[in-house]
Write a structure and sequence with these properties.
Blueprint (H helix, E strand, L loop, with lengths): L1 E7 L3 E9 L5 E10 L6 H4 L4 H20 L4 E6 L1 H5 L3 H12 L4 E2 L2 H15 L7 E6 L4 E6 L4 E7 L3 H8 L7 H22 L7 E3 L2 H15 L10 E3 H11 L4 H4 L7 H20 L4 E4 L4 H12 L1 H7 L5 H12 L4 H17 L1 H4 L3 H13 L11 H11 L7 H12 L12 H5 L2 H19 L8 E9 L2 E8 L4 H9 L2 H7 L3 E5 L27
Parallel strand pairs: 1-4, 4-5, 6-9, 9-11, 13-14
Antiparallel strand pairs: 1-2, 2-3, 6-7, 7-8, 10-11, 12-13
Helix pairs in contact: 2-4, 5-12, 6-11, 7-11, 8-9, 8-11, 9-11, 14-17, 15-17, 15-21, 17-19, 17-21, 18-19, 19-21, 21-22, 21-23
């Protein structure tokens, strides 16, 4: 299963695409980042600017396109401080959803801190003693106090690097008085954050966020004329952070922009970010900080995998994105998985057995597979009219790897698997389909109707079937367990539409003996002890 996690931060928008490898395990298969500064200018005006919204929405649309090309099953998207605080945050969310098809979720500061701690705990071995995780974003700073088992407390304060630069620094580089005022403000906010946490002296301090990563690269460059080669687990001393801050605060922007691993936008705000980290380490009485290359995005992935462990276990063996997506939708609505999977098997046996008659191809076979899996999903709304409800859920369920026309065919096949049959004059959606797609709906719904009847009791009493052609008609030879008379009766009743398409009769008969599959060994020849005849009693 493949998951995309997108974090619309105040300064940057980030995405990670991860392949699930277990309950909470995953491998990163792609990353993307773009500096859009959605919060630029919003901290004093209280509103996101039109330009910032436009930049961010366009970036989100590109990220969503990449996620779809990467065949992700699930897109998670959050947005934090700037959108959370802006008066027009709701307008931004609506524009983002309309442009990208992705619905960003605004999360509270406490949840942001929890997810960041979860990510760091998954990338590094945290000690049993309480430790501090620091994340300096564009709009706010998160401090999470926790240990190897989980997070205890979270504190969030408005000490984001972009916020401080825009609201507290009018000159570049800042003058002595201006910088002194900034130091007093940051120190006051850090004290408040530590009081919220209970004024701990943590065993260790860990850092997550682009601001801290960039500062670690700069500190290393100042010391050794090289950047950090491996971020995760890299230890940066408090002394090196302090020395880097002193040099950065005297550098003009043009000089900072020439530093390695520091893009132009990050160079604008790194002084404020460095000051915040220096004050946090001082307050924590920490002589070093250990970096994690995981952050909020990875926390989103880990948290989702943990809460959907059963779904991941069921979907992981399914290689095809379309079938994984259909199974995800089925399990989301607590569908009857054994029944649905059995109907898939019987439907495909019918499809393959009648290939010469219907003339449909592999593409239609795959659409039948999805329709068979989801034909009863509408029962979660109500059993009466459930086929119509199934069609609605299929259209609205976010199936992946399928075109709009493919989804409509699947919806129509599910709709007509029970009563009625597709007619152009009665169904405008059906009428708008192309001629080949309408033909596919007629055949696939007729096949699904018979297959569904063969599990009328939902006990999988029919093991399989074979198709025998005889003139214009066909005989369906059914391999059934005992007490499958209801299934045979239902299949005979519901074969009417299939017979109409074939132009001949459809007979449903029970096999004289169970089918033997190609992998089953032939029964061993029975041998008799010497001197014993077949008629012996």
């Amino acid at each position: 299963m493949r998951i995309a996690a997108i974090d619309i931060g105040t300064n940057s928008i980030h995405m990670v695409i991860a392949q699930a490898t277990g309950r909470t395990g995953f491998e990163v298969v792609d990353r993307e980042r773009e500096v859009v500064q959605v919060g630029s200018g919003s901290f004093e005006s209280g509103r996101l600017s039109a330009d910032a919204v436009r930049r961010t929405v366009l970036a989100l649309r590109r990220f969503a396109q990449l996620a779809r090309r990467r065949q992700v099953d699930k897109v998670l998207c959050t947005t934090t401080a700037a959108v959370r605080e802006a008066e027009n945050g709701g307008e931004f969310l609506r524009a983002a959803r309309e442009a990208s098809g992705v619905s960003p979720r605004v999360i509270p500061a406490e949840e942001e801190g929890r997810l960041i701690h979860l990510a760091v705990r998954s990338s590094l071995q945290l000690p049993e003693a309480p430790s501090l995780v620091v994340d300096i974003g564009g709009g706010s700073m998160q401090l999470a106090l926790g240990d190897a088992r989980g997070v205890h407390r979270v504190a969030s304060v408005p000490l984001g690097a972009l916020r401080l630069t825009e609201t507290r620094l009018a000159h570049d580089p800042p003058g002595p008085r201006e910088f002194a005022r900034l130091v007093r403000h940051v120190r006051k906010q850090v004290r408040a954050a530590f009081r919220t946490l209970g004024d701990p002296v943590p065993a260790r301090v860990y850092g997550s966020s682009g601001a801290i990563h960039a500062l670690a690269h700069v500190a290393r460059w100042f010391e050794r004329d090289e950047t950090v080669q491996q971020l995760n687990g890299h230890v940066c001393t408090h002394e090196s952070i302090t020395r880097a801050l002193r040099r950065l605060m005297r550098m003009p922007l043009a000089q900072r922009q020439r530093l390695p691993e520091l893009d132009a936008k990050r160079a604008e705000i790194i002084v404020a970010g460095a000051l915040v980290l220096d004050e946090v380490l001082s307050r924590a009485q920490a002589d070093q900080i250990t970096l994690s290359d995981f952050g909020l995005r990875e926390g989103l992935v880990i948290d989702w995998l943990d809460r959907h462990a059963q779904e991941v276990a069921e979907l992981e063996p399914i290689a095809d994105l379309r079938q994984r997506s259909a199974m995800r939708l089925l399990t989301k609505f607590d569908g009857n998985v054994p029944h649905a999977q059995h109907i898939v098997k019987l439907s495909l046996q019918l499809f393959d057995g009648l290939a010469e008659q219907h003339g449909l191809g592999l593409e239609e076979r795959e659409l039948l597979q999805s329709a068979a899996l989801l034909h009863d999903v509408g029962a979660a709304i109500a059993y009466d009219g459930h086929a119509e409800h199934s069609a609605y859920i299929i259209r609205s369920g976010g199936l992946r790897g399928l075109s709009d026309a493919d989804i409509e065919v699947i919806a129509k096949v599910a709709k007509y698997h029970g009563k009625g049959r597709p007619r152009r004059k009665d169904d405008p959606r059906y009428d708008r389909l192309a001629k080949r797609q309408r033909r596919a709906v007629r055949w696939l719904s007729a096949l699904l109707r018979v297959a569904e009847a063969l599990d009328r009791s939902h006990y999988q009493l029919v093991r399989g079937l074979r198709v025998l052609r005889r003139g214009e008609g066909v005989t369906l030879v059914v391999d059934a367990k005992r007490d499958a008379q209801l299934e045979l009766w239902a299949a005979r009743r519901r074969a009417v539409h299939l017979a109409r398409l074939l132009g001949g009769d459809v007979r449903v008969v029970e096999a004289a003996r169970p089918f033997r599959t190609a992998t089953e060994p032939r029964p061993a020849r029975r041998t008799r002890p010497a001197g014993v005849s077949d008629t012996a009693h």
